[in-house]
Amino acid sequence: MLLLASLAFADDLLLTHARLWDGTGAPVREDVDVLIQGDRIAAIGPDLVAPEGARVLDISGATVIPGLIDSHVHLSMSPGAAWRSDSPEQEDASLRHHLRAYLACGVTTLLDPAVLPDAQARIDATLASGAPGPRYLTLGTPFSPPGGYVQAVIPAFPSVATKAEVERQLDAVVAQGVVGIKTTVEEGFGPRIWPTYDDDVADAIRTGAAARGLRVYTHAAGPREQERAITELGATVLVHPPERHSARLVELAAASNVYEMTTLSILDSMRMGWRPERLDDPLLHLVVPAAELATARDPAVVRGFEDTMFATVYPGVPGKGLLARFGFNERAIAHRLARTNRALRALRDAGVRIVMGSDSGNWPIIPFELHGPTSVREVELLVLAGFSPEEALVSATRTPARMLGLEAGTLQPGRIADLLVVDGDPLADVRALRSLRYTVRGGQARTPAEWMEP
Ligand SMILES: [Zn+2]
Predict the structure, then answer these.
(1) Domain containing residue 40
(2) Would strands 436-441 and 444-446 be described as parallel, antiparallel, or unpaired?
(3) Are 148 and 247 within one domain?
(4) Residues forming a β-bridge with 161
(5) Residues 145 and 54 placed together within one structural domain of the fold
(6) Which of 25, 84, 346, 374 could share a disulfide with 358, CB 3.0–4.6 Å?
(7) Tell me, what CATH number does 423's domain have?
(8) pLDDT per position as a tens digit, 305-339
(9) From ligand 1's centre to the CA of 385, what distance in Å?
(10) Mean pLDDT of 242-264
(11) From the CA of 218, how far away is ligand 1's center (Å)?
């Protein structure tokens, strides 16, 4: 009955006395009403009249902003799953939980850059069955050179070594209904241990993606690898920021009109290992499955995660234990985060478009990149990195909408009604995103607690 009542509300909804940041670049408007009919914004203006039977919400003191878009989320992965043995039933329950968590955290659209066809079909079917969740777009199955990253870490992902294999793989991801393709130029996070594409294969990827009208999204961590991604693969999106930058990369990225994703949470979330009190965050307790919080709190998991990361990045080096501690300590991670922040600021200052992506769920050995709250944290991390709150919000709304060719991301009459009602003023203090009154998804308004009801 509860569900039926909510659906009845979805037809007409009038938000009154809103402060509105519509995401278009227009100034904030005070005391306006927003009329939503069905899943669309019907009108925005002062003193709108509620249609008969409409649900009316007085949202004085709150700010309306577009729903957030997280452009780097691994929805098929449960954080810390490598340290548990979840049954298929538990995995299904976790997926449904994660989908609700995103809405409860204000995220109304996801881009998943790496998902195998079976896992994608399971997620698509769950959403098609009516399970509440954000809009879900993918880049399908990522591919790499034989023995290269990402296959070296997650062997289920395929490799391509010839033009014919590239063509076959591109056709396979097109059949997955992708919005772009995902590949890699990664020689190693420490020493150079992984092969990259030779020129023929790189040419085949660039021309094959262009022929299919698909953007090339590339994982490339170092500045030299990012340059190669842009020049050799024709990448227009880098799915991580460079951890170091060079003047040459910044100039090339600006001249090539690329998008750079933020993924600051990868480093930031590792710090939870030394600051487990961060797991006491009330938002985490509302939206994260208890089993995942327990994994993230387990000191044996934290130690095992550090050792496994070390063994992956420095294969063959007998450094488990002491050396892992040397590379994974709070100071070393803070230093790397500060360096990445500098790179992002330099890219922004040169006019490169910055896109919020959290990398939630990334490697199943990582227990901290929890679905939902990590997206909110990623926006906050951009402000801590020296972006204005408005710049951070643009990177999570209008910019990714343009990258993805979506009509979401800005609020105007006729547009899809994916929006947030946030207590206070997130343009003054972005932490207001944690005081979310309602997430409106396709015209349907629920509080975070209501979205979490199974
Ligand atoms: Zn990722």
Answers:
(1) 2-67+411-452
(2) antiparallel
(3) yes
(4) none
(5) no
(6) 374
(7) 2.30.40.10
(8) 888 877 777 776 665 556 566 667 889 899 999 99
(9) 20
(10) 96
(11) 10
183, 55: one domain? no
Domain contains 440: yes
Q: Residue 55 Cα, ligand 1 centroid: separation in angstroms? A: 40
Question: Domain with 220 in it: what CATH number?
Answer: 3.20.20.140
- Going from the C-alpha of 29 to that of each of 23, 65, 267, 312, 429, the distances in angstroms are 11, 11, 36, 51, 17
Cα–Cα distance, 134 to 119 (Å, whole number) = 17
Q: Is residue 257 located within the same domain as residue 236?
A: yes
- Alpha-carbon distance of 362 to 73, in angstroms, equals 7
Q: Kindly state whether residue 316 falls inside one of the protein's structural domains.
A: no
Looking at 384, 404, 424, which one is the last position of a domain? 404
CA of 185 to the centre of ligand 1 (A): 14
Query: pTM of the full predicted structure?
Result: 0.95
Task: Please check whether residues 206 and 142 belong to one and the same domain.
Answer: yes
Domain count along the chain: 2
Query: Is residue 24 domain-shared with residue 167, that is, in the same domain?
Result: no
* Residue closest to 454 by CA, chosen among 283, 281, 289: 289
For residue 299, report the distance from its CA to the centre of ligand 1, in Å.
Answer: 24
| Residue 290 placed within a domain | no
How far away, in angstroms, is 239 Cα from ligand 1 center? 7
| Separation between Cα atoms, residue 5 and residue 19, nearest integer Å | 27
Q: Which of 93, 104, 90, 92 is nearest to 285 (CA)?
A: 104
CB–CB of 345/385 below 8 Å?
yes
Tell me: do 342 and 391 sit in the same domain.
yes
User: How far apart, in whole angstroms, are the C-alpha atoms of residue 373 and residue 289?
Assistant: 12
The first and second tokens of residue 237, run together, are: 């999106």
State mean pLDDT over 113-141: 97
Contact (Cβ atoms closer than 8 angstroms) between residue 41 and residue 262: no
pLDDT in tens, 63-110: 999 999 999 999 999 999 989 999 999 999 999 999 999 999 999 999
8 A C-beta contact, residue 14 and residue 421: no
Residue 265 belongs to a domain: yes
Q: How far is the CA of 128 from the centre of ligand 1 (A)?
A: 25
Ligand 1 center from residue 42 Cα (angstroms): 37
Q: In the 8-state DSSP scheme, what is residue 322?
A: H
